[in-house]
Design goal:
This is Retinol dehydrogenase 11. Helix content is about 45%, strand content about 10%. The chain has 10 helices and 8 strands. Strands 3-2-1-4-5-6-7-8 form an 8-stranded mixed β-sheet, with helices on both faces. It starts with a helix and ends with a helix. About 5% of the residues have low confidence.
Length: about 300
Amino acid sequence: MYVLCTVIAALVCFLILKWMKRRRYCTDVKRLDGKTVLITGGNTGIGKETAVNLAMRGARVIIACRDVDKARKAVREIKARSHNVDVLYMELDLANMKCIREFCTSFLKKEKRLDILINNAGMPSVLDWTDDDFSMCFGVNHLGHFLLTNLLLGRLKECGSSRVITLTCDNYKYQKLDFQDLNYNLFPFFTYCRSKLANIYFTQELARITEGKGVTAYAVHPGYVQSNWTCHFSILFRIVMQVIMFMFFVSCEMGAQTVVHCAVSDSVTANNGGYFIDCQPAKLRPFAKDAGVAKKLWEASERLVRLA
């Protein structure tokens, strides 16, 4: 009897956990033949699963990564899974502004199209600094993508009906920006939250300034995903988090679904500048919809990355 009760309890717990991790899949079957997609951090996790999905739809997919060896391996896997040979990588370090500028110069020389830019790469809550002395989270998650997007914006406008999708997180709600200390790096988790809030403001202001110019922008919370973000932490932390992620987090394939939805669905254009969760528009906290703050952050970011 005890064994039977234990089995039933375990089964109930399993079903509850499975129900908690339910997500919607992108059901749009739209093809992307002739389109070019650029995905930062596309060599692993959500980025790689997004690359596979969009390559299967016929897109030319370019993954931008810092680690060349991992990028080469990822390209082989993406080609094999998608049956699309038009997949390649370019080296990019979002923690280095000079590298970002060099990457964009090279990209614009080699690529005549850019239809979808997916700002996927990100740093977790780490207490570290970029090569330009920005806190790692704010420097990579916001400023790096801010500069990258602006330098490629002309090509996006040329292609028309282009999209910029930036991955954020719903933990944005735990912090507000401090314009006296945007480079805040005292408590890593708070720094991460601020960088994700910055992603949301960035998306809103990008949508505003490109309205009617052939570019739309979307911020996506992919859910809590079983990715390799724990590689930046200690072994003990990784072990504990692997157990937690197995129980409560969703797969990378499932996490990529809302990103894919925003990349291909025609319905999302009605929510330009919007925030998406689970393949549908989601509500933001009131402070995260402040257009004045979004514009102020954009102008401050221009100064920080020295964007003329």
